[in-house]
Request: fold
Amino acid sequence: MKKLFFTLTLTLIPFYTFAYEGTISQSGSCGATDADCHYDLYEDGHLEISGTGKMSDFYYPTGNAAPWAPDDGPDIYDNPVKSVNINGVTSIGQWAFLWCNNLENVQISDSVKEVNTGAFEQSGNHIENIIIPSSVEKITGWAFTNSDTANIIIEGTPELIGNVFTNTRNAKIYCSSEIDCTNKGVYNDIDYQGTVIPYDKQSGVYLLDGQMYASPIDMANTQNACVDMDTCKAKVLKNKGYCSSDEACAAMVEAENANHPIEYKNKSYATIDDLLKGKHMPKRIYTIDEANRVAGTKNRVSIKYR
Reply:
């Protein structure tokens, strides 16, 4: 019997990059040696960090404060940065946002692989969510020490080195069950007063206490749980821009459930998980026809092109 090859035509959402609108008050380099890292600090307190390579490491006692921080004196605890967008660089430098007491919003792109010592120490009192993307491979000690960030969400499975969450008093730490966020090497169990919430991730869907969520923010705001797995997968695909309508997203999930390949940008994917991971199928797809297996042999089978 001839098998059908299922294709799904999608309407794609265009990708645009928008420049931050405002008046720049200060600019300069913030990169380590051989890095091309640049910052723009706007008058309203927004900080844009972009470029390639690693950010510089900073620390006040050595006279090496971050360039967007006050030099010294009574203003050292009144850092002007209110929001930050980190894009393109591969690391967040040591103590880059130490004492950023006015910081309210942090966006970290999936270019970042390391969050270094003290990066957000004493800086999260007004932050609702910090999402550490799955690209991050390592978080080093004191990265969130004395931070009151409400939700710290670790999407991947980075190595946690030292007392990452020491005295993060009221924070909820969301982390995959594949890493041990309750390990005493991560935070001091006496100083730490927050709540660690382990979760599992399945085909882009977050699973927490028997509930399903399409994003870390939904997971932190537990009232946004999905009704069922299919609806949740469709929401994940729409959030990530793989489809522009609820109908198209639902069709992708239906294709997976029917064991049909999903076609996206002229490539075929066996499952939604493969699509999210970029694991497309080879151009020539073969299946073993068990009905035509040659009697009395172990390996000789009839191969049909699909």
Summary: The two ends are 10 Å apart (CA to CA).
